[in-house]
Amino acid sequence: MSVTTAEDGPLAGLRVLDASTILAGPLVAQVLGDFGAEVIKIEHPARGDGMRGHGLAKDDQSLWWKMVARNKRTVGLYLGDPAGAEVFRKLAATADVVIENFRPGTLERWGLGYDVLSADNPGLILLRVTGFGQSGPYASRPAFGTLVEAMSGFAHLTGEPDGPPTLPAFGLADSIAGMAGAAAVSMALFQREKDGHGQEIDLDLLSPIMTAVGPGVIYADQLGIDQQRTGNRSANNAPRNTYRTSDGHWVAISTSADSIARRVLTLVGHPEVIDEPWFATGRQRAAHADLLDGYVGAWIGERTREEVLRAFAEAGAAVGPVYRPSELLDDPQVRALELVTTVDDPDLGEMRMQNLLWRMGRTPGRIRFTGRALGADTDAVLGDELGLSAEELADLRERGVAG
């Protein structure tokens, strides 16, 4: 292991084994690695992580993989073989965190349950990511983010009122769970600082997105009301919608703060509605969304996007452009905060990708390298660091256990 510095991040010196696949678990490991953790990606030696085949590619290189596998060394190791399980057990004894997303009972079947791993390493934190958790009637079901996006209430609330439930065009549930998982691991590490003991973390994909969806559960429980789809409008405030500009672009407006609502209606030339009794709260304004959208939409429709953005900024009102990704890359605020950063990749050269999730003053973290080839670090990790001989590694490779 190389010498770490404050620049590497607050988790420098921490070792994480990422034995998970697809998105939620790997995203947890990505966040931990971004902030300094040494992440070792454990993949099937022949198939690798399915993320390697997700999304678009350039020169046969998966672009999504370059991002989600950044800051991860890669080791090909099949845990379902007893020899591979034994190697993993030894590796876990050197780790602080293990992340896995196998079906409940799989690690135990391989002789790698938390009772076994923690006997070797009492401080180990094991994050277990599944669709529905480690217990309950759905525990053994196959699950993906799409299923919990439907079950959580998200799809029910998304789309036009007279249209079908709408699923997101990206891995929303997995992404929310990934960021939640990073927080959960941080809490477990904090607890370990106090008592020296690790623990298991049972993270299902459903819980985080249920929280993100909002108060629907408590509304149903206390009022017997199921929230309904409102399209781009909100039941909590108005005007809140997307509006088309004269040059064919779209902008989004929210008036969650009453003061912003007053500024918006003054700007668009209808200050008279501010004195209406119903204008006083967001919920009451939402009942008059047709009227307010008409005023705002007509004013915006006569102006270009640049004119609208400038006028709203001068009025201190809230507006945001509906960007395509290519436009986001060149936004001045995105550039100022370096929300997109340039990283050098050995296969494709310079590439831009999302930067770290937040900015820390003393221990900022950084992207040290992009996603690597399958098994690129097997010799270094299992041989140089774990102590397997060249003959042992050759035998494991011959049997398809290592790669």
From TrEMBL:
Pfam families assigned: CoA_transf_3
Residues annotated as signal peptide: none
Top-rank lineage group of the source organism: Bacteria
One GO MF term attached to the UniProt entry: transferase activity
SUPFAM superfamilies xref list: CoA-transferase family III (CaiB/BaiF) (SSF89796)
Keywords, sorted A to Z: Transferase
Entry's family note: Belongs to the CoA-transferase III family.
Protein name: Crotonobetainyl-CoA:carnitine CoA-transferase CaiB
Species for this entry: Asanoa ishikariensis
